[in-house]
Amino acid sequence: MTRATDIPPLDRTDPESAIAAAAKRCSNWGRWGADDVLGTLNFLDEAKRVEGARLVRRGASFSLAQSFDMDGPQKGWRRRTNPVHTMTDTGVDAERGTQGFPHGIGGADDVIFMPLQASTQWDGLGHIFDHGMAYNGRRAGDVVTSDGDSVTGIETTAALFAGRGVLLDVGRAIGTDGELPDGFAITAEHLEATIAAQGGSARVGRGDLLCVRTGRLTRARRDIAEGRGWGDYAGGAAPGLSFTTADWLHGTEIAGIATDTWGFEVRPNEFDVAFQPLHQVAIPNIGLFIGEMWDLDALAADCATDGQWDFFLTAAPLPVTGAVGAPVNPIAVK
């Protein structure tokens, strides 16, 4: 693992060099062979799933998903809209006998239209490229075309997101009143300080599914309750992981990481001119799966009460063939 003293200080004026250097240090290209499509999910093996299953103590379960509805956080950035839910058959149709079914049976049906990253979701390995290259050294155009991701589509992961989850409540450990301010860059030192504050059940290592709570969703909910709406929750300023955590994310050998923010990394980004530089290292170079807009508040409150910060986590994405990201309803069981 690269030591902190080996990492040059962040030069805000030179994102190109910083990204290139971090990508070289943290690359997992070829680590599991030239044909690998799973990236860091290779760390989440059967033994790790057994370890996760043994963490079920009380049987208490928590959904870590936000709602998927027309009142969600999206406001059109990059053509991302909120889900549109439409009924195609209703109870009114059944009452009026217009459905054409025999012997009095009736039913309801519905459809939904939505961007796959409109709410709680995983970023797949075909979501981000680095200088035209996708994960494991493939040309981006050979991976994702107008037909979708034919190599690392999210369906390749459908059975794999189940194992030991661990929550680092950085908002509670480092922030004020359980929240970090927008623009707060969470460093490796902050993560390690949170682990130390939470104790042994918060250790982070190979194959873990790491959840990081910043408190940003808590603040968004307060804004909604006070009549200000979602504001810039989906697309604006937010606390998040510092670019300097790339080596920590690589060295811990976690299988995936999810946050309660829209973009995982700190916004605005730490360079003078940059867009999601940590994504550019993490997804196409580390092969790391990133979850965004997860609801960690109820789980965090329970963990703070019982002092146990690890749990069994299952978080299978909707296996849309060729998708570069997909909705998920993560379930934490303690």
Task: Give a verbal description of the structure.
Helix 1 packs parallel to helix 9. The longest helix is centred in the first third of the chain and has 12 residues, at 15-26. The two termini are 31 Å apart. This protein has helices at residues 15-26, 46-53, 91-96, 140-143, 170-174, 188-198, 216-225, 246-252, 277-286, 297-306, and strands spanning 61-63, 84-89, 109-113, 121-123, 133-134, 138-139, 144-145, 148-149, 162-169, 185-186, 209-213, 240-241, 256-259, 289-292, 310-314, 325-327, 331-333. The protein has 10 helices and 17 strands. It has 2 domains: 4-79 and 116-333, Glucose Oxidase, domain 1; 84-113, no CATH class. The protein is an alpha/beta fold and 334 residues long. Strands 1-17-15-9-11-13-14-4-16 form a 9-stranded mixed β-sheet. The protein is globular.
Please sum up the structure shown.
Residues 73-97 are annotated as: Disordered. The strands form 5 sheets. The chain has a 9-stranded mixed β-sheet with strand order 1-17-15-9-11-13-14-4-16. A two-stranded antiparallel sheet has the order 2-3. A two-stranded antiparallel ribbon has the order 5-6. The chain has helices at 15-26, 46-53, 91-96, 140-143, 170-174, 188-198, 216-225, 246-252, 277-286, 297-306, and strands at 61-63, 84-89, 109-113, 121-123, 133-134, 138-139, 144-145, 148-149, 162-169, 185-186, 209-213, 240-241, 256-259, 289-292, 310-314, 325-327, 331-333.
